[in-house]
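anyone seen this seq b4? input:
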Amino acid sequence: ATQRIKEGPVVIRESLSTYPSQIAAASLAASFWDAITEIATVPEEDLATTLLLAPSSFDDDFVEFAAVCDELIEPTVQATKADSIVGRAWFHPMYDTESIGHTKIVAGHALPASMVEKFVRQIEDDVPDSELIVQANNAVRCSPHATINLLRRSQLIAAKEVEAASPNKKPNSIYARNVLRILSDDSQ
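predicted toks r here
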């Protein structure tokens, strides 16, 4: 049976730090684990997802923010199997998939633009230029501040089941629709 996606509040937390980047990284990691603990212990109807704003020192440096997420936070998620509790999505004012250099799915990051382009081809006959897809794919992960979105695993599973049960199912079409929506908004 398909799960219903439960509605619940989005909580916004801020990881405060006015220290150098090494200490800001520790502050972000500590705030991340506080948020994981909160999601694991608070009922879904009281807390659906958490947006964790990183210390402002990360706002001007996507590469540093991605390094902290990929090299400090993500290994601890894997080591503790916390990925069974939450999904992660990194957002940044200067999000840039090309600086990640990935060709396959990397936890927390936007899908590679080449994958998204394949999804666009599945739902759209008139496929935009590859460079426009790259730009729109980056824009999907743009935010005013460096941010980590923590999503309950149960809600991610329920959303996947809803998509699979849809009579017009097109797996992963959300990525293509997001890119096409951004390109449509940009052209107006």
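Residues 21-41 form the longest helix (21 residues). Residues 10-186 form one domain. kinda curious what u guys think
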